[in-house]
C-alpha cells in the first residue's frame, strides 16, 4: 500500500482505479458521493484524503493522483506560478464561503482595540481573508488584488493580524478574538458555518475546481469525473447535507 505524509487512504489501493485527492471534511464527504455517481458511468474512483492544502497538488503533479478537488482557482494559479506545476482546472465544484468566527464576541461592533485576528497563512486565502476583514469595516487595504498584511493602509483599532496554517484556525479560536476560516475547516471542527459574524457573498470568485495534469485534461475518465461532480444528484446531496453552508457550482 502506497502511503503519503499527512495522508489517509480511504480505500484499498488499486492500481487501476482513478485516484482523486481531496482534503479532509466536506471535500472528502462530497467525493465519496461522487464515487457512487461516477460508478454508474463506469469510472472507479479511489479517494485519497489529505490534511493540508499543499500536498494534493504535489502528489498530482508527480503522478500519484489523477485529479484533485479541494482548491479554488486563485489558489491553483498561485501554486502553478510559485512551483511550476503542469496543472490546469477542468471544471467547477462547490463554493465554500470564507467567514469570520469568534468565541468571544457576538457582533463585529464589539471588536476592541488591539484585538488579535487569525487568518490563513497562504497568499491566496490570506488575501481573501483580508478582503473580508475590509468588507467588515475592520481594516482598509491599498491593494485589492491578492493583498497581504503589508497592504493594510488603515488599521484604526490597531488589530494584530496573526497568520496561521488554515487547518489550525478553528482550534486557535480560544486564543484569538476573531479568526477568518475556510468553511471546510469550520465543518471539520464541528463549528456551525451559520455562526459566522460575516461571510463572503455568493458572488465570491473563489469557487472550487477540479485540477488535473495539463496532459490529461481531455482524458475520458477526467470528463466522467467532471460530469459526476456537476450532476444534479451531487447538487441535491450538497444542499441536503450542508443546509446551504456549501453551494454547488453552476
TrEMBL record:
Locations listed in the record: Membrane
GO CC field: membrane
Membrane topology recorded in Swiss-Prot or TrEMBL: Lipid-anchor
Keywords: Dioxygenase, Lipoprotein, Membrane, Oxidoreductase, Palmitate, Signal
Primary location group: membrane
UniProt-listed InterPro entries: Lipoprotein_NlpA (IPR004872)
Pfam family, one: Lipoprotein_9
Signal peptide: 1-17
Keyword Lipoprotein: yes
GO molecular function, one term: dioxygenase activity
Family to which the UniProt record says this protein belongs: Belongs to the NlpA lipoprotein family.
NCBIfam families: MetQ/NlpA family lipoprotein
Name the record gives this protein: Dioxygenase
Biological source species: Candidatus Odyssella acanthamoebae
